[in-house]
Design goal:
β1 and β2 form a beta hairpin. α3 crosses α14 and α4 packs antiparallel against α11. The protein has two domains: 63 residues, no CATH class; 204 residues, MetI-like (MetI-like fold). It has a two-stranded antiparallel sheet with strand order 1-2. By secondary structure, the chain is mainly α. The chain is globular, with a radius of gyration of 24 Å.
Length: 282
């Protein structure tokens, strides 16, 4: 019982800020200005101690959709930045799944010399912080002449050792007798990959999609380094600028920004849990 109470309280720490963002997105601009546009003195004794705070409110006095109307119809640049995030995220997720699954199948089904040594190199690359590869990727993008384009972000981020690792962990659990039986029936590696390896690894694939989407959707460092044209930047960089001078827009924009991540997690939650469990056991 104590454990459940602790977990509930711990979950509320994360949920309450999200609830504030969601409910405040339906507040009128007047209420938002009263709550967040003014500062109140908590202590002011001879100007010796001074602390200011804002007045948080979870329930709006009057529900209105004015912030969403302003965001979607009066702030067209928001949709442009939103689509930039889509153009960056979807190719990265697709490349992670396709390249990761194909490489994982090679490490699982093929037999070649130094296979385990090469995989250990993959693991070393996986534990390296991405900042360690930021400068080499920048130099390579500059050499290829793709700086200040979405390709300069998609190409280096499209391959991930983590994708290979999580898919290989799943494929290792497939009995070798299944692949041997398929070979005896005349199935080549492409048929085995498409008909056996991929269907039996869909849990890990779903986990990979969710984790990659969340990481790519919230990317900040790579767009800051590789993009110089503000019109190409994703929403993760422009979110705070949209609401400059209009605090209410920040709440509405944040809700729309969270929706794709919430939707994809809820849709694939069962597969995500299954994939994490399988990867942890193998």
């Amino acid at each position: 019982m104590v454990k459940k109470i602790f977990l509930i309280l711990f979950a509320l720490i994360y949920i309450i800020p999200l609830l504030i963002i969601f409910t405040n997105s339906f507040m009128s601009m007047g209420e938002i200005t009263r709550n967040y546009g003014a500062e109140y003195d908590l202590f002011d004794h001879g100007r010796m101690a001074y602390t200011s705070y804002v007045r948080y409110s979870l329930v709006p006095e009057r529900i209105t959709f004015s912030q969403y109307y302003t965001l979607l119809f009066m702030t067209p640049m928001y949709l442009d930045f939103f689509m930039n995030s889509v153009r960056l995220t979807l190719p990265i997720v697709l490349m992670h799944v396709v390249i990761g699954a194909m490489a994982a199948y090679g490490f699982t089904a093929w037999k070649f010399r130094y296979k385990e040594v090469i995989f250990i190199v993959y693991i070393i690359l996986m534990v390296l912080p991405f900042q360690a590869t930021l400068v080499p990727n920048f130099i390579m993008a500059d050499t290829l002449g793709i700086l200040n384009t979405h390709s300069s972000i998609i190409l280096p981020l499209g391959f991930s050792p983590f994708a290979v690792f999580i898919m290989r962990q799943s494929m290792k659990g497939i009995p070798s007798s299944i692949f041997e039986a398929a070979q005896m029936d005349g199935a080549n590696h492409l048929r085995q990959f498409a008909s056996i390896a991929v269907p039996m690894s869909k849990g890990s694939g779903a986990s990979l999609i969710i984790l990659t989407f969340a990481d790519s959707w919230a990317m900040v460092e790579h767009p800051m380094v590789f993009l110089r044209d503000a019109a190409l930047e994703p929403l993760s960089l422009e979110l705070y600028r949209i609401g400059q001078g209009n605090i209410g827009l920040i709440f509405a924009a944040s809700v729309f920004y969270m929706l794709p991540m919430v939707w994809i997690f809820l849709y694939g939650q069962a597969y995500f849990e299954q994939g994490v469990k399988l990867s942890a056991l193998k």
